[in-house]
Hints:
The structure holds 2 protein chains of 2 kinds. By secondary structure, chain A is mostly helical. Helix content of chain A is about 80%, strand content about 0%.
Amino acid sequence: MMNNKNNHVPQQQDVQVRERMSLTFRRLSQKKWMDIWHGNPPGIILFVFGLIVALIMSIPIVYVIWRSLFAGADRWARLLDERIPQLLWNTLSLTVAVTACALAIGVSLAWIVVRTDLPGRKVWQWLLALPLVIPPYVGAVTYIIVFGPTGWARDVWRDTPWLVRTFGEYPLNIYSFWGVFFVLTMFTYPYVFLIASASLRKMNRNFEEIARSQGLSTWQIFWKVNLPFLRPAIGAGAILISLYVLSDFGAIAMLRYVTFTAAIYFQRASFDTASASILSLVLIVLTVLILWVESWTRRKNKYYQTSNSFKEPDILSLGKWKPVAIFFVFVIFSLAIVLPIAVLTYWSIIGIRMGALNERFFIFAFNSLKVSGFASLLCMVLALPVIYLKSRYPSVISSAIDKLSYAGYALPGVIVALGFIFIFNNHIPMLYNTFYMLALAFVVRFLPQAMQAGEASLSLVSPRMDEAARSLGYPPWKVMFTVILPNILPGILAGGALVFVSSIKELPATLMLRPPGFDTLAVRIWVDASEALYHLAAPAALLIIFISIIPLRYMLRKY
Amino acid sequence: MKKPFKLMLSVITSLLLVFSAACGSSNEQTSQPERDTENEQKLTGKLVVYSSRNENFVDPLLNKFKEETGVEVLALHGVEPLQLIEEAGNVQADIFISNDVGALEYLRMKGILEGFDAKGAETIDAQFRAEDNAWIALSVRARGFIYNKDLISEEEMPKTMEELMDPKWAGQFAITRGGNGSMIANVSALRREWGDEKTSQWVTAIKNNAGAIMQGHGDIRRAVGAGEFKFGLVNNYYYHQQLEEPTDNNVGFIYPDQGEGEMGVILNAAGVGLVKGGPNSANAKAFIEWLLKEENQLAFVGESLELPINPKLDPPYKHATKISDLKVQSMPLKELGQYFEDTKALIEKAGLDLELK
């Protein structure tokens, strides 16, 4: 009995201790929870909602990485040996070349347009940003039509005897590094142009006046005063463009060049999915490296402008350089806008005469509209809790959710699509091969566009409004929907429009995920252009370009 | 700040309106076939078709089926046969249309296709059908050389596949990339005839000798017609297609390996397979029986200008050489299925890229 009792007491004690422990644990974790949220935790509904969004956004990428780790040592060795060095060289050389050249063009155009007496500079500010509305794969098609091996330029060359006599056969090969380099540069420089223009406009004249009083020439001032101030803008532009080149699939594949994205697509197309995931992992690492460099430089370089004595920069006279500047601006504008639009219009007219705008065309357009519209609706709904959490309940968790939401945005579409195929085919067969899967992929790719637009509006709404509503007893999620949403609706809608346009233009994920019988305009441009049926591809391309003009004003204001 | 937002708002609302209106109308469309009772076959619902055959040949056929039966056909073009294997646990397609008997037989061997006794299958010679009719081929093509008569005479042309290895042809002919379905089947057939070692040598040699490696056979026929190359390795119907062009049509065709003791011309066929466990199995069977009607067999051949397999049917291209007039490689086409899996690896290893780079 004694024994028994003795046994009993510790047991009871044990239970008590455990109870006490669990109580302290609960209290501790509660305290920790409050600490994380700085004493202001969001309601559970809002929190779970945000968490779900973050999960949806990051799962495809996690899945791809996971798969690549189990691809087998053999495959890794073979790819590291044979494929990856060449791909790295192809990808990096192209990225560096395009970034450098786009920077040079973008910055010099910005300087000419903002700071000199170029005739019609207000109009040029608009016109030179216009290539943004032409998806690079469409640009590539137009350049193939003109400069390709059976293109117009070849015909002119062949029919011009003295050209053939002096230079021999038609020398241009658009299907080459230089072809890809040229096309990507022409359709990405506007990013740099916009960012550089914005910071040139904000540049204080005082610094330049001091430099000039010290006897520096305009050229020296550009290098010693303007350029250092432009460094953050140039850095931001370089990051944008190099990320773009890493992720582009359409233009690169159409011009038959192979970078990581194209290699991943073709490995997947021949169903070597394990190799595709390995290549994806390498590309993910490359992307993360670039993002890391960006955040590192952003921390390191801080340039301050004094705002209290701000004077607008003055306009420099071009003098004898005027014809050169006009010629330069005109050449870039012709190559990046006039030529593509003219070619597309020419083929569209032929196409429309041949009846390209038939029922099929409208079905494709409707499919594009349907899937992009659905994706933009979803983005508007899903962006709200994430940005609301981030702005009203700042914490490690909400910033993690925010960061995870950017995963699909930073990474190339082929990787997102690859993850989607794995997940839906194996785990969510109900939705596999439906247009919901495609729309969700667009959400993963473009949600941050909706978030950025929403955040801009949300930062203008005072948190006092939330507090007032909370004091009346509303839970956080209800505050978000009934009080905040109506106030930031314009921002959310603008974000939705951006997502809509990006989705309509999207090519790689659409190609890989479209369900049977659900071709979109982007898919048709790809298919018809690769069959050289330009009269069918051109009207679809023009339509996409027109739709892309919608949010251009918003994008121009952003910079 | 306000103005662009207002613009955006109105644009989005109008888009949403169009969107919802269009959704409504598409619902009406799907209910239409039920009202259609006049058709001989009372079918409803959908049919999911995966195809790796040229879209321009397949779409008119599928539209014809849709019009005659009211079944909504959902087609996915450019499908690799391996996609059907990947989806084996979650079957999406009802029908697989392929240009390559090797791919069809391979899928049957993997248990992806399902046999059934289709009415009308007997119109097709047994060598062009699976044992259990899981796939049935309807049109046949032969490999050979299209040549430009302005640049080279029939006598000068090579007469066998093997001769392409001769360095004297360097730079004078065009081939497709290694991943092209007909090219793969061509190499598979050679592997059966010659063994892997010699076939690898052949692939390496033609890759080195070729003046251009092109995306598809259509590019080759156009280039040869335009006089960019003396000849090209294609399927016979590309020769028929080039003859029908308004210009650049002074071309001829060599059916290779026709001599005494030579292997005979390499054939391949295009056909249709029934996917096991497809979501619309009844429609799939109806589609195959519909397809086996004579008029639809011809519609399957369509604009491709291939030769129909059914001997009763006249080829759409009247002057086409009949297969029965040719010396044909002895291998039963089905055997291509056994080579399907590793021929691509052999081609790549021999140095011919599957995709253009």
